[in-house]
Amino acid sequence: MKGDRVEIVIDAGGSSRSYEIEASRAGRRVDITHRRGVVEVTEVTRAGTPVRTARFMAGRVLALVEHPATPRPPRDGEPVSQLRRSA
After folding, report:
1. Residue 10 domain boundaries
2. What is the mean pLDDT of residues 39-67?
3. pLDDT above 70 for 38
4. With contact defined as beta carbons under 8 Å apart, do 16 and 3 qualify?
5. Closest C-alpha among 10, 1, 45, 6 to residue 22
6. Quick one: the chain helix, strand, coil %, rounded to 5?
7. 70 Cβ neighbours under 8 A, 6+ residues apart
8. Distance between CA 15 and CA 74 in Å, rounded?
9. Residue 76 scores a pLDDT above 80
10. Which regions of the chain does DSSP assign to beta strands (E)?
11. What are the CA-CA distances from residue 23 to residues 37, 48, 56, 66, 68 (Å)?
12. Residue 9, strand partner residues
């Protein structure tokens, strides 16, 4: 979903560095894979085509934080869906 982002913090030899990958357009998402000692974060289109990829050695990754997009609040005069009561 547009606005989803992943923050990756890695050990850079005595200090830490932070990187971000964000779903920049509507219909895109951010996928995370971890295999064979490599963490891969990819921005992917609806069709599954990778747009942007970042790869990090798993041993260097200190933190991997997912930040979901915040839902947009309704504007003035915009209809709001009704909540259903449970029976």
Report:
1. 5-65
2. 90
3. yes
4. no
5. 6
6. 5, 50, 45
7. 3
8. 42
9. no
10. 5-11, 16-22, 29-35, 38-44, 50-57, 61-67
11. 24, 13, 19, 12, 10
12. 18, 63
User: Considering the chain, what percentage of its residues have pLDDT values greater than 70?
Assistant: 80
Q: What tokens were used for 73?
A: 């609040």
Global pTM value: 0.70
Compare 72 and 45 and report the one with higher pLDDT: 45
Q: Residue 86's pLDDT is what?
A: 61
Q: Is residue 15 part of a domain?
A: yes
Looking at the structure of the chain, the number of domains it has is: 1
Q: Is residue 70 part of a domain?
A: no
Amino acid at 80: V
Domain assignment of residue 51, yes or no: yes
In a domain, 22, yes or no: yes
Which amino acid is residue 39, in one-letter code?
A: V
